[in-house]
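Quick check before the chapter quiz. The format below is the same one you will see on the exam, so make sure you can read both the input and the output lines.
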Amino acid sequence: MDRVQVLKRESVAGGGDAADEAPWDAPIEPQEDALETAGVYLQDISNRDEAVLVARAGNDMTFKDVSNPVAKTLTELLAGAGGLTVAAHKALRQLIHFIDDGPAEGFASLAYREVTGTVFPSAIVWYVDNTKVNNKIVERLLTWTGVNLTTDQWKMYDTDGTTVLVTVTDAISFSGIFETNRTRTIA
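Here is the expected output.
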């Protein structure tokens, strides 16, 4: 890929600098000049077409290609990707972030876990802190039939500590002590 310079035609009437009005065939100054155009069709080694376009619609930059034939603004693209920073992603209250063993990065230190039951726990609850006052983060409720875990339910709580955002319940079947199948319900 070669780096090339385009020729510029700068004028005060067109928004340019009077000192740069002549000559008309001068190359752009890469550290000073910006091209004025309705859009740019991007090409590669094997394509010279109108398949990939970066353009402007009002005050928004738009992007369009063969896989995305309807132009999308940068805001729409960021929203589609979540528009999340790394720090914000770590703090998401989505069960996938907790289902292993509770809160980690993105949450305040001193989270508090309480286990009800002994060898076969019936509840494992993570709280924001040890006061446990309306501050549940995630809760796991376990139902046992003998030594077999037959229901495994996770509840993810909103930042108010009481509103359930999602409940995931596994109903588990066994043959003796060996799991044969499970059905997951997400509500």
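If your answer matched, good. The first helix runs from residue 74 to 80.
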